[in-house]
Inverse folding.
């Protein structure tokens, strides 16, 4: 058994920001499932949203975040995000992050969907995440208190007397080890791999959320998965992201007849919130392929979007010359391990931040480019609380409880790698079909029954893919149960059989097989009034 002061699961923007701060207080172990550069963070293209222009800018960023979140944003969390953001981004600049600059040396800012101002910083055109990860990694590598351990899979949390005291790790050589620490941070990212169509890399299997749930922690708002409207859609090609920044720079959406359809759907047209654009594309796609059109944009698009341009060139396409076929794909999990603003979960000793956590900062729908900022801000907040090592989070009020089954963790005999891949593929396809962009009770019940049947053939053993298969299954059951319980349509969660919103916004919470709903901080009517007063202040 090894001992550290702090363990951080994950080496994306959240884990590295936290490790940097934790190193001031003790010995830190950071584990990543693959190479350090392999995380959602490294794939982020468009940029990081930050209000660097003073109080009015911060107030507008808050307003945009709350509006995009469709009544479910926790105001305190969003206020912390937008107000602490500038300081955190200044820190990134001090660590040497090379955001793109104009001729006079000023930071370039672009706009994405549902932002009222140009406030998105970007790097190397469309490689913002890679540049931030590079700078943070260079910083953290230089810290003598931090050990970075790659190709190491966290299997489970070690719980004693109701507190999390360590983790079990599957090391690169396939040995299982136990590491103990005063506090554990889950910075393990999202779970895009739960869907057959996703922009997320292979590491995004929601491990941290699944292990927290198994250990008895509450998870929140798990039915809210953001589907990015514009992932590349060509037979046999990966679902490569066509960044929202393309629309920020003027790209138009066209249906199979070559017509624009977004102006009739939303006043912000192509820059409407993501859920609105994604559903509109899904509807238009029934009549044929939908495309992005930048042929009219007077800009050097290869220079502005070098990564996307290089990817498209591999398929004989050019932004300035061709229509680019797109379709939605699973992109970002708004839900996660339920935490307070300092990353405290419902279990003492366990903290979570970034995409793995749910503070309510994104509500029902994340505002574009707010998640890199979330990792920066809440990673550092969690580190601060870990140093203080407080007790479990304060409980919020709780409502009516529904009972659902828990999935078992142990299963049948070891299976071949191919059988595990087939099992995972089946799960991903059923989630896409029945718990994707458009949902109803019949589909969700079918998914629930199929997932229950799949327990009988759950991959066993300690191979990484078997561990991921079980984690995906745990989360799929939680997501489907939460989606069934939410009999309304809000943000990214759209129920064909319940198209209206509940009059009061409520978070779903699941813990140890029970699902219930808690009132959010912004009831719909109050929210409207607050937004009006903000807009006039
Ligand atoms: C293609 C793409 C483009 C995006 N563009 C943007 C953008 O422009 N702006 C924006 O704000 N957001 C963007 N996002 C979202 C954003 O990148 C993520 O939400 C954010 O980077 C999450 O950071 P994180 O540190 O919480 O998790 P991640 O960066 O995903 O890091 C997770 C880490 O956890 C590790 N891990 C996972 N499971 C285990 C385990 N069992 N054991 C050990 N380690 C584990 C992984 O190896 C990884 O190191 C984009 C996402 C994608 C996929």
């Amino acid at each position: 058994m090894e001992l550290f002061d702090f363990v951080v699961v994950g080496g994306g923007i959240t884990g590295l920001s936290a490790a940097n701060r934790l190193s001031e207080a003790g010995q830190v172990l950071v584990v990543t499932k693959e190479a350090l550069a392999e995380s959602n963070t490294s794939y982020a293209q468009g940029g990081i949203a930050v209000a660097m222009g003073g109080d009015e800018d911060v107030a507008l960023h808050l307003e945009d975040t709350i509006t995009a979140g469709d009544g479910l944003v926790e105001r305190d969390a969003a206020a912390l995000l937008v107000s602490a953001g500038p300081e955190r981004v200044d820190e990134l600049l001090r660590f040497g992050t090379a955001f793109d600059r104009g001729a006079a040396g000023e930071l370039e800012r672009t706009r994405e969907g549902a932002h009222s101002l140009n406030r998105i910083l970007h790097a190397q055109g469309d490689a913002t995440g890679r540049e931030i990860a590079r700078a943070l990694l260079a910083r953290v590598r230089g810290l003598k208190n931090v050990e970075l351990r790659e190709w190491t899979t966290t299997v489970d949390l070690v719980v004693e007397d109701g507190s999390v005291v360590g983790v079990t790790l599957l090391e690169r050589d396939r040995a299982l080890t136990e590491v103990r620490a005063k506090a554990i941070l889950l910075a393990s990212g999202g779970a895009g791999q739960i869907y057959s169509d996703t922009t997320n890399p292979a590491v995004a299997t929601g491990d941290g959320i699944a292990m927290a749930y198994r250990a008895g922690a509450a998870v929140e708002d798990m039915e809210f998965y953001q589907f990015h409207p514009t992932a590349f859609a060509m037979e046999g090609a990966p679902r490569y992201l066509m960044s929202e920044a393309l629309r920020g720079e003027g790209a138009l959406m066209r249906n199979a007849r070559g017509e624009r359809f977004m102006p009739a759907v939303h006043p912000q047209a192509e820059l409407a919130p993501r859920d609105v654009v994604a559903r509109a594309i899904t509807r238009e796609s029934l009549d044929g392929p939908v495309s992005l059109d930048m042929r009219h944009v007077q800009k050097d698009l290869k220079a502005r979007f070098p990564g996307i341009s290089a990817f498209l060139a591999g398929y004989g396409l050019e932004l300035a010359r061709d229509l680019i076929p797109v379709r939605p794909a699973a992109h970002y999990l708004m839900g996660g391990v339920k935490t307070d603003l300092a990353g405290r979960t419902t279990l003492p000793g366990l903290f979570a931040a970034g995409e793995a956590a749910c503070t309510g900062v994104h509500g029902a729908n994340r505002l574009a480019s707010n998640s890199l900022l979330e990792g920066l801000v809440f990673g550092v907040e969690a580190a601060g609380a870990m140093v203080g090592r407080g007790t479990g989070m304060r409980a919020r009020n709780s409502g009516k409880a529904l009972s659902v089954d828990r999935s078992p963790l142990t299963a049948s005999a070891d299976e071949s790698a191919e059988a595990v891949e087939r099992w995972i593929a089946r799960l991903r396809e059923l989630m896409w079909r029945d718990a994707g962009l458009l949902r109803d009770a019949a589909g969700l019940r079918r998914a629930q029954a199929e997932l229950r049947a799949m327990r009988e053939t759950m991959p066993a053993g300690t191979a990484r893919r078997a561990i991921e298969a079980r984690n995906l299954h745990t989360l799929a059951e939680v997501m489907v149960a939460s989606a069934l319980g939410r009999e309304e349509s809000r943000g990214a969660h759209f129920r064909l059989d319940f198209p209206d919103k509940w009059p009061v916004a409520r978070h779903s919470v699941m813990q140890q097989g029970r699902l219930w709903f808690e009132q959010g901080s912004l009831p719909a009517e109050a929210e409207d009034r607050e937004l009006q007063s903000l807009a006039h202040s």
In short: The mean pLDDT is 91. The longest strand covers residues 323-333.
